[in-house]
Known about the structure:
- The complex is a heterotrimer of chains A (274), B (234) and C (240).
- Chain A has helices at residues 2-21, 33-37, 40-52, 63-71, 83-91, 124-134, 146-157, 162-165, 177-187, 195-199, 236-247, 249-256, and strands at 26-32, 55-61, 77-80, 95-111, 138-140, 170-172, 190-194, 207-211, 218-226, 259-260, 263-264, 267-268.
- By secondary structure, chain A is of the alpha/beta class.
- In chain A, the strands form two sheets. In chain A, strands 1, 2, 3, 4, 5, 6, 7, 8, 9 and 12 form a ten-stranded mixed beta sheet that branches. Chain A has a two-stranded antiparallel ribbon with strand order 10-11.
- The longest helix of chain A is centred in the first third of the chain and has 20 residues, at 2-21.
- Chain A starts with a helix and ends in a 6-residue tail after the last strand.
- The model of chain A has no long low-confidence stretch (mean pLDDT 90).
- Chain B is an all-alpha fold.
- Chain B has a single domain, classed as MetI-like (MetI-like fold).
- Chain B has ten helices and no strands.
- Chain B is globular, with a radius of gyration of 20 Å.
- Chain C has 240 residues and is of the alpha/beta class.
- Chain C is built from eight helices and nine strands.
- In chain C, α5 links the parallel β6 and β7.
- The model of chain C is unreliable at 1-6 (pLDDT under 50).
- The A-B interface holds A 1, 8, 11-12, 14-15, 18-19, 22, 28, 33, 36-37, 42, 57-60, 71-74, 176-179, 181-182, 185, 197, 200-204, 231, 233 and B 30-32, 34-35, 38, 86-89, 92, 95, 97-100, 153, 179-182, 184, 194, 196-202.
Amino acid sequence: MKRFIGSLVVMLGMLVATCAAAEQPFIVVASTTSTEQSGLFGHLLPSFTKDTGIEVRVVAVGTGQALDIGRRGDADVVFVHDKPAELKWLAEGNGVARYPVMYNDFVLIGPKADPAHVAGGKDIAVAFRKIEQAKAPFVSRADKSGTYSAELRLWKDAGIDIAKDKGPWYRETGSGMGPALNTAAGMNAYILSDRGTWLNFRNPGDLEIVVQGDKRLFNQYGVMLVNPANHPQVKKGLGQEFIDWLVSPHGQQVIATYKIDGQQLFFPNAGTDS
Amino acid sequence: MDTISQSFALALGMVAHLDPRLTQIVGLSIAISLTSTLCSAAIGLPLGAAVAIARFPGRGPLIVALNAAMGLPPVVVGLLVYLLLSRAGPLGEFGLLFTPTAMVIAQTILIVPIIAALTRQIVEDAWVEYREQLRSLNASWRQSTVTLLWDTRWSLLTVLLAGFGRAASEVGAVIIVGGNIDGVTRVMTTAIALETSKGDLALALGLGIVLLTLVMLVNVGAHLTRQWARVRFG
Amino acid sequence: MGDAEVIAGLPIVASGITIVRGGTRVLDGIELTIEARSRTFILGANGAGKSMLLRVLHGLIAPDAGTVRWGRQTARPINQAMVFQRACLLRRSAAGNVRHALALAGIRRSEARQRVDDALARVGLTAIADRPARVLSGGEQQRLALARASALEPEVLFLDEPTASLDPPATRAVESIVSAIHARGTTIVMTTHSLGQAKRLADTVVFLDAGRVTEIADATQFFAAPRSPEARAFLEGERL
């Protein structure tokens, strides 16, 4: 028993030692599941760390939760995709400034059988109306994510008051992009997804992209430093260094080179007013 | 079926090649869960033994509360710890959120009731057997507690392992307070959750198989130890 | 232990001891004195209250009415020991069990070592000192319990039917150990079901019937001619 306790103490010591060894400068970035699960960060961050020696610890959650983490001061940088929510967050004094970084697009995913006959269409509002009329199963994130915000805007564009018109066909999962895609695959339902997560998704079942290319499916990502005036512990210098790197020509180029199956996933557009 | 057989192949492959990412995740899982188990033991064992031996008003409700707390919903504990450790929370100044320490705190809260409640049961049974003898030997409360804890050590080992098992297999709390940060707070369960949401079910299940095997090995070890102890010490 | 001054907790004087359990008087107004260096046996049928009385005299159970005085003290003195019907041994070695009892009594380690060796030698368990106590035979366990008790060098040793579940050789071993402990100056208070045992060991007999003392007598005289009708009936029943 004493030897057992002894070995436990040694292990504990090793844990502490590991933590101490990891005392490389780091920042915490609250970001969205789409950037993490599409594999972008796996491609981007090693490059940044190599250039600057700064480790980036990503907490990947929905946009709403990421903004909340920033608001509470639990992250240094917020990297999300819901411009209206971001501007509101800034206006409330939670951050310093917003930098557009890149965009990708949303795609409407649906079953190959296409019960609502929307496949190949170029107008997302028309497709949404058809789905509503056909009462075809549709899986909604129904969380505080950027994708959900986009979905709600699209229902509005289609002239549908989804809060009022939803029926059993409209399945609100309250989950992240991946779990929601799993649900849609299981139920053969339509679902709005960001292209990156979809391309990196390994359990598509009978689903495929049915509508893409509409301007309204444009999905802009922005990055913001959490306001050090509210939270003195925010690593202002390191965080700003990360933001500057992202919008620099080099960072933008690294973003552009991320591809899955030869397809570019994110399109850098720093310096625009997107 | 295809996914399942694929997962076994993946799991075997990962273990066989000692995949460095897997070893890192497994190592972190074990380190965090062991630390939580140790902290919980330091609290739960004396607490359980004290409740077993002492008689005080409110003891009955306390036992019920301890037993009920064994089923604490991890997500609720995670949320509570999150709010406590957040910069905007009462313990924010320590900057513990999204660190392994936060995960240890959450797991400790989850498994202290398990260890305390099971210890209470085991020590109380032993106390019934030893009470008169210990009283006759003029043992104080403290001495009785220590004596009983030591005498039931082999049974308590199983209790600690039950706590370890819960800590190692829990995901709801650690994903909230740890943030599932790659290389920092990503453990087996949060990695499984991540791979599941990426739709890589085979890899998720493969990791799950590794986790199950680990927990199973630990329990087989505990079982054999107890068997040996029963023969050796009665 | 030969010093009269050391014997502070004797005689044990019990007066008016009453214990009520579930509305029944399990012990009913017991008056009893245990003299120093005596070997007092408490006899009686099952349920007469023998074990209960022993526990009251040892101070393990507080009576509902009446008082026990140990010498001049009214608080339970520490230099007593008790051996129970089932030896309650810890999951430690034989020697470890004795060491544990000495540690609880606050005996210094250096002194304890010698006492452990002596006590184990006294009961003939030296050879198995390092064996785990719980896997010893019933007779060995009871001898170990006696070793543990005697290592404490108690003024009084209480024994509650210590041979109830032992075979004759183990019983004889226990009896000779009890005699040896008594010879070292320890007062013995014991219950038993075996009249033969009481005859071999007792100086004084206390006879209990339904929670009352019906007779306190010198052992020889008690077995030759019990005065109380209850004791007479009991002895006759046992002879059948």
